[in-house]
Design brief:
alpha+beta, 12 strands, single chain, two-stranded antiparallel sheet, Alpha-D-Glucose-1,6-Bisphosphate, Chain A, domain 4, 303 residues
């Protein structure tokens, strides 16, 4: 009887493994078929995990999750929740698909936004009605193009721009407006808790700090990120520093012809009321200096 049970168990294990292997094979085939329909990348080799099989894939930014089910990919697994996640009556699923949809809707929304300034390569708009996350504070939308001719190095990609904007060691080298920039906790390469302190822009104005939960990812070579503040008590507030609330900040970076396009949309309670007239003057100056500093560091850097 014991031998019969062992034989049945052995047969059952082999049968289950055969089914599992078949499912992995089918899923792997679908993924590879999906990738052949995308752009033909050729510079960098990356990997993709499907079931128990790891595929080596060629091309920059193939961590972009081309074949992942965007509608099912919940993006905020960190234990820290932002205000939107704790509000059970609020209907917003934090999936890649939903975040991309929200970003694209804001980019293409022409009726809710009015032009604030258009000069020096910047198109800046304001939506005084706020967002679905908060209606008290305005949304600021900014378009900027960096011509490829701005770079003296030949290896600039969307991923490299992302690195210089978001990796603390690189950001602190060129961004003099930030005194502290640290990833406090990291769930994976896409979801992390970020704390940074912004230097005072003028006399008698205290420094500001933000604790954000950020999610960034690539889809078809396009960079997306979504950030929003978490509870104040997670990180102690320094003396003479005022904590501000990031209701919603998103960014999209992509390559197009002879330039890199950067679109940022923010809704922040900065605890400092800045009239739109002042924003229209200060924002282009501030961000031009910001981008010039980043480009200079990228041209002088090697990684």
């Amino acid at each position: 009887m014991k031998e019969i049970c062992e034989n049945i168990f052995c047969f059952w294990r082999k049968w289950c493994k055969k089914i599992d292997d078949s499912l992995v094979s089918i899923e792997s085939t679908k993924m590879l078929e999906n990738l052949t329909e995308k752009e033909n990348y050729s510079n960098i080799t990356s990997t993709q995990q499907i079931g128990n099989t790891t595929f080596k894939l060629k091309g920059p930014e193939l961590e972009m999750s081309t074949a992942l089910p965007l509608a099912e990919d919940i993006v905020f697994p960190l234990k820290y929740l932002n205000a939107t996640e704790t509000n059970k009556s609020f209907n917003f699923e934090f999936t890649k698909e939903k975040i991309i949809s929200f970003i694209e809707e804001q980019i293409n929304d022409k009726s809710s936004y009015t032009s604030l300034v258009n000069k020096n390569g910047f198109d800046i708009y304001i939506n005084k009605s706020g967002s679905i996350f908060n209606s008290e504070f305005p949304m600021i939308k900014m378009f900027y193009q960096i011509p490829k001719s701005s770079f003296t190095r030949k290896d600039v990609t969307v991923k490299l721009i992302d690195d210089y904007m978001n990796i603390p060691e690189k950001r602190l080298k060129w961004d003099k407006s930030i005194r502290h920039y640290k990833i406090v906790e990291k769930n994976n390469d896409e979801v992390y808790l970020l704390h940074y302190i912004i230097r005072s822009p003028m006399l008698f104005v205290s420094e500001r700090d933000i604790v954000d939960k950020r999610y960034d990812f690539y889809v078809n070579g396009i960079y997306y990120d979504f950030s929003s503040s978490v509870k104040d008590d997670l990180i102690p507030i320094e003396e003479d520093v005022m904590r501000i609330t990031d209701h919603c900040s998103v960014c999209k970076i992509y390559e197009e012809n002879d330039c890199f396009n950067i679109i940022s949309i923010t809704q922040v309670d900065s605890k400092f009321n800045v009239p739109p007239a002042m924003l229209s003057v200060q924002l282009p100056i501030k961000y031009q200096d910001w981008y010039d500093s980043m480009i200079k560091e990228m041209n002088e850097g090697s990684g």
